[in-house]
User: Fold this.
Amino acid sequence: MLNRNNGCRFMEFTWKGYKCIYLENEVIRVEIIVDKGTDIVEFLYKEKDIDFMWRSPIPTYPSSKLIQTASSKTGNFIDYYPGGWQEIFPNGGGICEYKGAVLGLHGEVALLPWEYEIIENSKERIVIKFGVHTYRTPFDLEKTILMESGKPYITIDEEVFNLAGEEMDFIWRHHPTFGKPFLSEDCSINIKKAKVKVIPSNGESFTNLKQIEGEWPFVEGINGKNIDISKVPSESENISDVIFLSEIEEGYCEIINERIKIGFFMEFPKEVFRYIWFWRIAKGSCNYPWYGRNYNIALEPFSSLPVLTEAIKRNDQLKLKEMSSLKVKLKAEVRKV
Assistant:
């Protein structure tokens, strides 16, 4: 539905068999794959024709026609990963078994089709409510995305409901990943005070960091000198790291390209999303699934460290008592600098 050609507007369409929606105003355009996790695969700043979202090298096939050669040891997330921004729930990280249910890499909702309802449709505002019901766990997840005329941002109001007759554990994460043409060595990351932990390499990735803890933004390098990890590496640096930031001072993160003078800003409730997962690859991840192809940065507000069953052991998971819910609000914005 293309209902107007100025102000706030949206369009419903089908791409490769997936139901999708464009939301746009005078400043930004956001594309959402409704039938695949409500993935945000485009967040375009119109003035400079810059899309912040990274495109995965893994091709997106129609779900009805993709024949997998074998089941993955971690689940199906990677086979259906187009890049962009995913909702991760109720597991994050590797596969685990929780209360008898096997939960694959990054949980359920990123692989499920969501329903949606147009709440408001005017030149001044577009408001769309999305919802999904998990099938291996007893949760409903609802989120309402708001776009206003002339504003360079969207807001996301979310609520998760525990429909079980018992207490349920979960972990929750937003997984926005940034790539070219926005991403380059001209970019830097702004995060207030945080603890830093670099996870050990799996032998298939290259790193210039020692596998130690530090204080943002400095981590000891393999050469013994401090490395400022707020500076985005160039595409040719041949590194790959997953870094966890804890004890974050504020619920925000920002990545800025100083050359083109624009940045992407996220705001989130740090009492729920207590960590930021920082994933960076500059052609340094070998073998499956990236084969040395990637150049991307992800800054991911996350409730917990991985995996759900391990989070329960550490007592850093989220919990909901039977028939209760939890609300959060996030904001994603383009800023000139």
Notes: The two ends are 35 Å apart (CA to CA). The chain has two domains: 1-171+324-337, 173-302. The first helix runs from residue 308 to 314.
